[in-house]
Amino acid sequence: MDLKNWGWDDRWESTFLELKTDGLVPGRVIADSRHLYEVVVDGGRQSWSRPTGNLSARLAGTAGLPVTGDWVLVEANPRYTEWPIHDVLPRRSAMSRKSPTDALHAAGEQVLAANVDYLFLVCGLDGGRNFTARGLERYLTAAWDSGALPVVVLNKADLALDAEASLLEAQEVAAGADVVVTSSVTEHGVDPLAPYLQPGKTVALVGKSGVGKSTIINRLAGMELLATQANREGDLRGRHTTTLRRMVRLPSGALLLDTPGLRQLALWGDEDAVDSTFSDIAELASECKFGDCSHRKEPGCAVQQALAEGALDLARYESYLALQRELRYLQRKQDVKARLEQKARGKALSRHSKDWSRSSGKGH
Question: Are residues 68 and 105 located together in one domain of the fold?
């Protein structure tokens, strides 16, 4: 099987040829779990693989280690039970969040999917918190910042109290992104997703547990590729059916990447990421009297005027401010981390200099 079937193109080929890759071949990560990666190379050969010690050391503490969707350079020797991964090609897009295991420490980035063309932001219309305007704004902010094109997927329309009202609400929130309504159990199926599923295009499905990501993939593939479970009774919260990220090829030639359900999506990025989601507020802000307007109490604030006139929804405005605060706080934590790391490097250099001075006799 040609690598083009996994999304390889002339741009990737150009990047590959610019690197010194003696004895190495490009491959795509099609699954990952606990620093073990399944990689497919030209000809359809595939194997579980691990980063070399040098690569692990070089990328330690960063978000640069491979994830599903990455293109990597491997030593695809048939004698090896696991292929060594020597490098990761620069990503074209990356959907990230702040690592949920890092809440009490310096902020860390967790990449959920790499090198995807479309991000299906899947919401469930079966009630509960599987679809809210505020939650969708959070997902859209992360999606626009990723470099991929977001598509809002309102799934489980067969269980919705008012699917049309949910569609209108999502369209108001998701300006600039397509919104489609689907049901993976009715005769309407998931046909509205077909225009995005072109040969060689990579689509990642992201959303809470239980919104139907795996079911959508199974329906599109025409077979039960991925395990599914019903939501828990009582609170409609989904179970974590998908425990690893995996990419599958559809009959259309499109590539679908399933991700584990998210309990929370802490943002990763800078304040500019918010403007794409809240383009209406950003446009109003450009008309404010002062360029550094905080949109709270300043005179001549176009945002406050829109609120007063009812042209801007108060809940949306408060969501805008909250996401901005979250990203500012993240930036401050990153700045503190950078200063501490710089200080630690300075101390290490000073110790090294003193040790060298004593050992060479120049300290006397």
Answer: no
Catalogue the long-range contacts made by 333-338 (C-beta closer than 8 Å, 24 or more residues apart): 333/106, 333/107, 334/106, 334/107, 336/106, 337/106, 337/107
Q: Nearest 5 degrees, angle CA 346-CA 351-CA 352?
A: 95
Distance CA 13, CA 26 (A): 9
Nearest to 66 by CA among 100, 108, 94, 42: 94
Q: In this structure, are 199 and 335 located in the same domain?
A: no
In terms of domains, do 101 and 141 share one?
yes
CB 276 within 8 A of CB 176: yes
- Segment 212-234, tens digit of pLDDT: 898 898 888 887 765 555 544 44
Q: CA-to-CA distance for 220 and 210, rounded, in angstroms? A: 18
Distance, in Å, from the CA atom of 298 to the CA atom of 309, rounded to the nearest integer, reads 17
> Residue 183 maps to which CATH number?
3.40.50.300
Number of domains in the chain: 3
Tell me the β-bridge partners of 149. 118
Nearest alpha carbon to residue 68 among 43, 45, 34, 97 = 34
Q: Is the model's pLDDT at 103 over the cut of 70?
A: no
Identify whether 265 is part of a domain: no
